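Support request from a user on the community tier.

User writes: "When I paste my C-alpha cells into the form, the page sometimes reloads and wipes my input. The last time it worked, I copied everything first. Here is what I submitted, just in case something in the input itself triggers the reload:"
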C-alpha cells in the first residue's frame, strides 16, 4: 500500500486562459483516469479582478493577491486529510514579490509536496532565488520537463539529483494524419498553413515571423500564417490591445495582410488540436533561451507537425536528431529560408512528421500520469518510513514562568451532563462516537490533580457528571466496569477492557486521597472497595500498572487494608516476573514489544517500591524507565515518544511515528516519580524535556497544544500534526501540565524556604 488516497493539485486551471491552467487540467485528468479510485481535487489560483466558472474538480479558489487565501487553502487541505499536494510552480501565477505568496501556503501545509517547476532560471533575481529555494526546501520531490532544468537545479541551487525527476510535458495521443485532412473545416483548403499558438505578448517573437513572411510567400504564394490566441491578460490589463494593433500595422506595412490571420481568442483544447493537425509547419519564434517548457511545442511535436523554432531550452532538447529545425533568435532571414524550404519539400516534411510522432509516444498523458503517480507513491511511502531531520538541540532548562497556564475551555466543551465525550472532529466534540470510561477516568484524575493545587477551574457540576459516569459504568452483576457508551446513553458492552477497569481504579484511589468533600470521598471509597478485587484476575500488564497506581493512593489513605496490600504485592511481583523473563543485554524491558502507555509500567513499580520499601520494585522501575527514556530521546536531544508504527515489532528500535500525547504524559509522570524516589535532578529535567514535546520541542518543531484553550492535537505524523483534538490527547496535556505545575510550585516554595534559612 502506498498510502496515497487523497491528492490535491495547486495551480491555475481552465477556464483561466494560460498554459499552466491547461497543464494542470490535463495532468489532473490523466492522473484521475489512470487511478480512478483516487480522491483528487484542484485548488485553482485566480488572477486579479477576474472570476471563472470552474468545473466541479476545482475545490477551492485562491485569489492571487489575497495572502489569507493561501493559508486557508492549507488549512482546508489538512481538514480533508489530503495525503499529498502536487504544486505547479511559476513565479508569475502567485501574488507577492516573485510569487512569494505561495510560501504562505507552504508554511501552513502539513503534508508532503511534489512540485512541478515550469520555470528554472540560470540567473534568478535575489527575490526569485529566495522564493524558489524555500519552495525547493519544502518540496519532497521536484519534477522538471527538461534535462537542462535538472542541471540548473543542481548547479544554481545545489539540489541533490535524487530529489529531481524529469518527466516530459504530456501530449495528447492523436494519430498521425495529413494536414490537408482538416483544412477545409477552417476554410484553408489548398493553403500552406503555418501556425503559432499562445497568449499574444512581445516575448513570443511574432515580429520575427512576420518579417520572415515575404520570403516564404515568394516561394509559396499560397502560404498563410495563423497567430492563434488572445492577448495575454496582464498585457491587456496594462496596455489594452496596443501590442496587437502594432502587429496588425506591421502586417499592413509589409503588404502581407492576405497571408496573415490573427485569431484573437483563447481556443478550447479540441480547437487547438485541430489547428495543429491541419498546419504544415508549426513555429515557435520565441526571443529568449530561458524558456524551460512550452506546452504547445510539446503538443505539436506529439502530433507530428514539422517544427521550426528558435533555440530556447525546451526546443533545443526536444528537436534534437533532426526531429525539427532550429534557427537563431530574431533571425527573420533564416526563419523565412527554413520554412520556405520545408513547404516546398513534402518528402522531407513527411519524414520529420513520422520521426517526431514516433519519438513522442512515451510523452502521452497516460504515460506521464503513470510516471507522476510513481513519484507520488514513492513520496507517500518515504513520508511514512523516513524520520524527519532532527531540529536544533533543546536544552532541558525550565522554570515555572515557561509553563503555559491551565486553560480548561476545550476540556469543558467536551463535557455535558452525562460525562466527557471521547473523540473530536478537529476542535469540536464528535458526539457520534459517544463516551468511554477511559477518558472519564482520566478526567476525574484531572479533577483530583487540580484540587490538590487549590484550582477550582472545573465546575462542581462537571466533576459530579464525571463521577456519575464512573459510578454508572460499574456493572455489579459481573463485577466489571463497562467502557463504551453511545451518545444516547446506551452501554455498548457488558464489560470493558481490563485497562479501562484499571484506569477507573486509579482515578478512584486518587480521588479518595485528594478529595475534600466527604460525600464524594464516601462514594469513591465504596466503589473502589467493590471493584478492586476483580483486578487479581487480570492478565494485561498495563491494567496491573494502572491498578497499582490506584492501590498506592488507596493504601496511603487506608494503611490497614490487608486485602489491598496483598493485591498490590501480587501485581508488582507479576511485573517483576515479566521483566525478569523478557530482559537481556540489549532489551531492558517487560515485554518483547514497546506499545502504548509504556512509562506507566516503570512508574507503577517505582511508586510501589517507594510505598512498600521494596528495593527490587524501585530498582527495576528506575532501570526500565532509564532504558525507555533512552529509546525516547532523539539524536538532537529532544523527546520522541515511541510511535504507534512500532506496535507489534518485537525487540526493534522504536519507529518515530505516529507520536501520541498519551506516551508523553506517561513519561512526564514516570520521570517525576523517579525524581521523587531518588532526588536526582536529572529525572526532573527529563520530565520537563518530555513535556516540552507538547509545546513544539519535537521532531517537527510544531506545537500540539493550544495554550489559549488547553486543547491538544491527537498526534504527530511525519509531516504534521493530527488536527483532531480529542479527550485523550487533551487530558494527557492537561495532566502533564498539572503535574509539572505542582512540582515547580513545590520546588519554588522549597527554594524560598532554604533561602530564608540561609539568611537567618
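"...and here is what came back when it finally went through:"
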Amino acid at each position: 500500500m502506498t498510502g496515497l488516497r487523497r491528492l490535491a493539485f495547486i495551480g491555475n486551471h481552465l477556464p483561466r486562459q494560460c498554459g499552466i491552467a491547461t497543464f494542470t487540467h490535463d495532468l489532473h485528468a490523466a492522473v484521475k483516469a489512470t487511478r480512478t479510485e483516487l480522491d483528487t481535487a484542484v485548488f485553482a489560483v485566480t488572477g486579479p479582478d477576474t472570476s471563472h466558472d470552474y468545473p466541479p474538480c476545482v475545490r477551492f479558489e485562491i485569489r492571487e493577491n489575497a495572502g489569507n487565501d493561501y493559508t486557508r487553502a492549507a488549512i482546508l487541505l489538512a481538514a480533508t486529510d489530503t495525503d499529498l499536494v502536487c504544486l505547479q510552480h511559476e513565479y508569475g501565477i502567485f501574488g507577492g514579490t516573485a510569487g512569494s505568496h505561495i510560501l504562505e501556503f507552504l508554511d501552513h501545509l502539513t503534508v508532503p509536496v511534489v512540485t512541478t517547476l515550469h520555470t528554472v532560471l540560470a540567473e534568478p533575481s535575489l527575490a526569485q532565488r529566495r522564493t524558489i529555494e524555500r519552495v525547493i526546501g519544502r518540496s519532497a520531490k521536484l519534477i522538471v520537463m527538461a534535462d537542462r532544468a535538472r542541471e540548473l537545479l543542481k548547479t544554481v541551487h545545489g539540489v541533490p539529483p535524487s530529489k529531481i525527476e524529469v518527466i516530459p510535458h504530456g501530449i495528447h495521443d492523436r494519430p498521425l494524419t495529413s494536414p490537408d485532412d482538416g483544412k477545409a473545416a477552417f476554410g484553408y483548403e489548398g493553403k500552406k498553413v503555418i501556425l503559432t499558438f499562445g497568449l499574444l505578448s512581445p516575448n513570443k517573437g511574432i515580429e520575427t515571423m512576420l518579417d520572415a513572411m515575404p520570403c516564404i510567400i515568394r516561394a509559396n504564394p499560397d502560404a498563410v500564417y495563423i497567430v492563434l490566441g488572445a492577448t495575454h491578460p496582464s498585457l491587456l490589463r496594462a496596455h489594452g490591445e496596443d501590442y496587437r494593433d502594432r502587429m496588425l500595422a506591421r502586417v499592413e506595412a509589409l503588404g502581407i495582410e492576405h497571408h496573415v490571420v490573427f485569431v484573437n481568442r483563447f481556443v478550447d483544447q479540441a480547437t487547438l488540436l485541430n489547428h495543429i493537425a491541419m498546419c504544415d509547419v508549426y513555429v515557435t519564434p520565441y526571443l529568449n533561451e530561458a524558456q524551460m517548457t512550452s506546452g504547445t511545442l510539446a503538443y505539436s511535436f506529439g502530433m507530428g507537425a514539422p517544427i521550426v523554432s528558435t533555440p530556447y531550452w525546451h526546443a533545443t532538447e526536444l528537436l534534437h536528431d533532426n526531429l525539427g529545425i532550429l534557427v537563431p533568435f530574431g533571425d527573420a532571414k533564416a526563419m523565412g529560408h527554413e520554412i520556405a524550404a520545408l513547404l516546398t519539400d513534402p518528402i522531407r516534411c513527411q519524414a520529420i512528421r513520422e520521426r517526431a510522432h514516433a519519438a513522442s509516444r512515451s510523452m502521452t498523458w497516460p504515460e506521464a500520469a503513470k510516471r507522476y503517480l510513481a513519484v507520488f507513491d514513492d513520496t507517500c511511502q518515504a513520508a511514512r518510513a523516513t524520520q524527519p531531520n532532527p531540529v536544533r538541540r533543546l536544552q532541558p532548562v525550565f522554570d515555572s514562568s515557561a509553563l503555559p497556564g491551565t486553560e480548561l475551555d476545550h476540556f469543558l466543551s467536551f463535557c455535558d451532563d452525562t460525562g466527557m465525550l471521547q473523540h473530536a472532529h478537529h476542535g469540536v466534540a464528535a458526539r457520534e462516537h459517544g463516551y468511554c470510561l477511559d477518558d472519564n477516568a482520566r478526567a476525574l484524575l484531572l479533577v483530583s490533580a487540580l484540587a490538590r493545587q487549590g484550582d477550582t477551574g472545573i465546575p462542581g457540576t462537571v466533576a459530579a457528571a464525571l463521577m456519575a459516569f464512573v459510578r454508572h459504568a460499574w456493572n455489579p452483576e459481573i463485577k466489571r466496569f463497562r467502557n463504551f457508551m453511545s451518545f444516547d446513553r446506551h452501554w455498548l458492552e457488558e464489560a470493558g477492557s481490563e485497562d479501562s477497569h484499571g484506569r477507573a481504579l486509579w482515578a478512584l484511589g486518587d480521588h479518595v486521597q485528594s478529595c475534600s468533600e466527604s460525600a464524594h470521598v464516601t462514594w469513591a471509597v465504596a466503589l473502589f472497595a467493590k471493584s478492586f478485587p476483580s483486578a487479581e484476575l487480570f492478565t494485561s500488564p498495563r491494567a496491573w500498572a494502572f491498578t497499582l497506581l490506584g492501590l498506592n493512593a488507596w493504601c496511603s489513605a487506608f494503611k490497614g487494608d490487608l486485602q489491598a496490600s496483598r493485591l498490590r504485592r501480587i501485581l508488582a511481583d507479576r511485573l517483576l516476573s515479566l521483566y525478569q523473563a523478557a530482559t537481556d543485554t540489549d532489551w531492558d524491558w517487560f515485554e518483547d514489544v514497546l506499545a502504548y502507555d509504556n512509562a506507566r509500567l516503570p512508574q507503577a513499580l517505582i511508586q510501589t517500591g517507594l510505598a512498600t520499601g521494596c528495593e527490587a520494585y524501585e530498582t527495576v522501575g528506575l532501570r526500565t524507565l532509564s532504558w525507555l527514556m533512552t529509546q525516547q530521546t532523539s539524536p538532537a536531544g529532544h523527546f520522541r515518544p515511541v510511535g504507534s508504527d512500532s506496535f507489534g515489532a518485537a525487540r526493534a528500535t522504536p519507529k518515530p511515528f505516529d507520536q501520541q500525547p498519551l506516551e508523553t504524559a506517561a513519561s512526564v509522570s514516570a520521570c517525576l516519580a523517579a525524581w521523587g524516589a531518588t532526588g536526582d535532578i536529572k529525572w526532573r529535567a527529563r520530565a520537563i524535556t518530555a513535556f516540552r514535546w507538547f509545546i513544539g520541542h519535537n521532531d517537527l518543531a510544531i506545537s500540539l497544544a493550544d495554550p489559549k484553550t488547553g486543547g491538544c492535537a491527537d498526534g504527530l505524523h511525519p509531516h504534521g500534526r493530527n488536527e483532531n483534538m480529542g479527550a485523550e490527547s487533551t487530558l494527557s496535556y492537561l495532566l502533564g501540565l498539572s503535574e509539572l505545575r505542582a512540582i515547580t510550585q513545590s520546588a519554588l516554595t522549597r527554594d524560598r524556604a532554604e533561602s530564608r534559612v540561609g539568611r537567618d
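Agent notes: The reload is a front-end session timeout and is unrelated to the input. DSSP finds 26 helices and 23 strands in the chain. The first helix runs from residue 19 to 34. Escalated to web team.
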